[in-house]
Specification:
182 residues, mainly beta, elongated
């Protein structure tokens, strides 16, 4: 199926990021990523999505899907959109707590040219992977010399064509961490 000469290939990845600020209360981040491989390759050389869901590692990972498992999807071309909007601190402004609400919307799409060549269990994202989330950052802040270390929580929901039949499996509860300078 794959010979030594078939492993000569081109793999192109690109990303585009935009930060939009509106004073101290609004901050949006938009990141579009995409990639393409120009020939049929073994699965370990293809794109495996940007999943960060692991029950033993529950941290929010920016520009990754929070409800997707790391190797759940396989593709030879993909495009992802990661959007987050931080509303800033609006309620409590104390040295030990400064909660900031952030909403997330993530969308992924991917295709695989020859899925029959792979003898492992996998899915493709050819019907759009969708998830939304809400995080509260800096619920607790620790003052450490020249900066603050913030801790928070978030919840993300997987929906659309790739949602699980058991609704509990579609939710991902995660912790958030941040560092901010004085």
């Amino acid at each position: 199926m794959f010979s030594d000469t078939s492993l000569v290939y081109n793999k192109i990845k690109a990303a585009f990021s935009v930060s939009l600020y509106k004073g101290r209360i609004d901050h949006s981040l938009i990141r579009v990523t995409g990639g393409i491989v120009d020939r049929d390759l073994p699965y370990n050389q293809l794109f495996t999505g940007f999943g960060s869901f692991d029950p033993s590692f529950r941290l929010i990972v920016q520009n990754h899907f929070q409800t997707m498992k790391p190797y759940e999807f396989l593709s030879d071309r993909y495009v992802n959109l990661f959007y987050s909007h931080n509303f800033g601190n609006r309620f409590i402004n104390e040295p030990f707590t400064k909660p900031k609400f952030t909403v997330y919307q993530n969308v992924g799409y991917g295709e695989l040219s020859k899925p029959q060549n792979h003898r492992i269990e996998f899915s493709t994202m050819d019907k759009f992977f969708l998830e939304s989330g809400l995080a509260i950052n800096d619920i607790i802040r620790f003052d450490y010399q020249y900066y603050y270390i913030g801790l928070g929580v978030g919840v993300f929901y997987r929906y659309g064509e790739y949602r699980f039949p058991n609704e509990k499996e579609n939710l991902a509860f995660k912790f958030a961490g941040s560092i901010s300078f004085r």
